[in-house]
Amino acid sequence: MKVAWAGSRETLEVSDRMAKLVANDPAFEKFTRPMLGRKELFKDTLKKAAYAWKLIIDLRLSEEEAKWLRLYIDEPAFTDLHWGMFIPAIEGQGTEEQKQKWLPLAQKMQIIGCYAQTELGHGSNVQGLETTATFDPQTDEFVLHSPTLTSSKWWPGGLGKVSTHAVVYARLIVGGQFHGVHGFIVQLRSLEDHSPLRGITVGDIGLKFGNGAYNTMDNGVLRFSHVRIPRNQMLMRVLQVTKDGKIMQSDVPRQLIYGTMVYVRQTIVADASKALSRAVCIATRYSAVRRQFGSRDGGPETQVIDYKTQQSRLFPLLASAYAFRFVGEWLKWLYMDVKQRLAANDFSTLPEAHACTAGLKSLTTTATADGIEECRKLCGGHGYLVSSGLPELFAVYIPACTYEGDNVVLLLQVARFLVKTVSELGHKKPVGTTAYMGRAAALMQSNCGIQSAGEWLNPDAIVEAFEARAARMAVSCAQRLAKFENPEEGFAELAADLVEASVAHCQLIVVSKFIEKLQQDIPGKGVRESLEVLCYVYALFLLHKHQGDFLATGYLTPKQSALANDQLRTLYSKVRPNAIALVDSFSYTDHYLGSILGRYDGNVYPKLYEAAWKDPLNDSDVADGFHQYVQPILKQNLHSAKL
Ligand SMILES: Cc1cc2nc3c(=O)[nH]c(=O)nc-3n(C[C@H](O)[C@H](O)[C@H](O)COP(=O)(O)OP(=O)(O)OC[C@H]3O[C@@H](n4cnc5c(N)ncnc54)[C@H](O)[C@@H]3O)c2cc1C
After folding, report:
1. What are phi and psi of 291, to 5 degrees?
2. Which atom of ligand 1 is nearest to the CA of 208?
3. Catalytic positions, written as ranges
4. At the top level of its lineage, which domain of life is listed (predicted)?
5. Residues 6+ away with beta carbon under 8 Å from 137
6. Which atom of ligand 1 is the closest one to the Cα of 81?
7. CB of 170 sitting under 6 A from ligand 1
8. Residue at 189 is within a domain
9. Is 139 found in the same domain as 230?
10. ipTM of this predicted complex?
């Protein structure tokens, strides 16, 4: 199962080796992180990042090994944006000349970059950005300026204190005309003494949610006062500005930018499976350790994992972690496919790939954020302790629902794509993940034929149910939209229903990809069988949770829905004996899990007790402040008080 989770024996080997390298090196200790003040915390992150870079150089780690190393260090840092956004933005949007100039500097970390798009006033609405980049033909330069308070760049990670450069998104103005929002490479700080360059105001935006958590990152604010940069620092793969101020559209379409988004979002989906599997690993192991009630004749109490309610909350999350892992694997393939097609100037699959990754980013990050919180509750009171690892994981993870596109805004983009697909059904064959829409007419008419709970253990029946639900919801939205005179007004009015239709479409993708995974060669005794159980759990759990959709669209009867739920209960009993093995297959070290509740050896209570005494409050029996503030209350003269 470890190989199935990792994707291949080679990946498992590299991942395990890097995990052990980090776990065995005291330089990467993270237990005290939540107790540090912001400055100490940030300095500690810089120290770890510098040490990691030294390891990468000294041990000559490959790009793949370095990626795993950074993952297992498990601390948001400026390097995430440098490698994850700054470099991909130049790779995706820069000309060959620009790539040759900037990428070697960035790859050797001789410059450190961030991605500065969002402003105080606008994030989702990129066309609403206010920063201007005005071309000055006299000097062959762009002048970057922040004309209003709301135009201040706000949020970019790595910007606040570390980055020397940024890819800055600004309104391109040439000859007094606006030509859209574009990216510019801008140096922010001196490479000599790191002070901000003339005309640049830059700093950190302040503390964020949770102790430790994302506060290791210097999310920043940035303002420009008429800052000049050479013309060739505009990223010009799609649109060029010539020396004499002419705008030249290159033959590369603007959707090329989607290619970078597909890349970034597929990494976010992969991260979702890591974060969720981590929380599930903690909650599953602890649920087997924790006992409450049910003692008979003085025997041990019941392990909480044996309660059906615990199983019905935990096992769908376990199944979701695997489902997201496999859909992430498929998305990685999709990105490689898109990349190859782009290289051959084939842009035909880009819109579908873009809608698909946007939707899956939204679906998986929302489910993961909710799932981590559910795991905290599954661990009862001890889940609220920072030493459970869950509060910090939650605090670090939840912004994934917002960055790289607010999840609702992304689902609305998917909805536009679905409505367009439905409207073109007569004359254009839907492709890829929307291919099922080609059978919309049949899916609108056929109804589920299931008559017993056992019949739900059938991949075709499951896929057809999800296809029928998704197709019916999309077609219904399209039909209602058609009744509006103004389509935009209709879209705004029906937005909530459109989002639900997008969710149905995205859930279908995840379910289908899980089923497709099971059709591949899966080595290892019993591995396929265990994965089949998880696949059914995932699908039938969604069916149960969204039974309103399946019933309202008329595909299922209440009886069939109840049969699905009966089957789900039976499946939980099949997951139970393998639950611990299924989370051990994630192959996470205790260091990476960072959780006393999720310890591999299950030695929870002694370690919780031991950890409590390490809290700084327990440095002395009498706390600092007691004599000053509490003792006077205890010693007050009560004779005069009316009690
Ligand atoms: C931890 C973190 C790190 C970040 N890192 C970076 C970074 O490195 N670089 C960078 O440039 N940015 C970064 N961001 C910013 C991030 O990309 C934006 O916050 C994100 O795109 C959402 O935009 P917003 O903040 O404007 O949200 P808003 O759009 O203001 O959203 C507010 C609410 O309005 C709703 N809403 C907005 N538009 C619509 C609509 N059309 N229809 C219906 N509902 C709508 C949303 O669903 C949401 O509920 C980061 C943010 C966070 C939290």
Report:
1. -125, 135
2. 1
3. 404
4. Eukaryota
5. 243, 244, 245
6. 8
7. no
8. yes
9. yes
10. 0.98
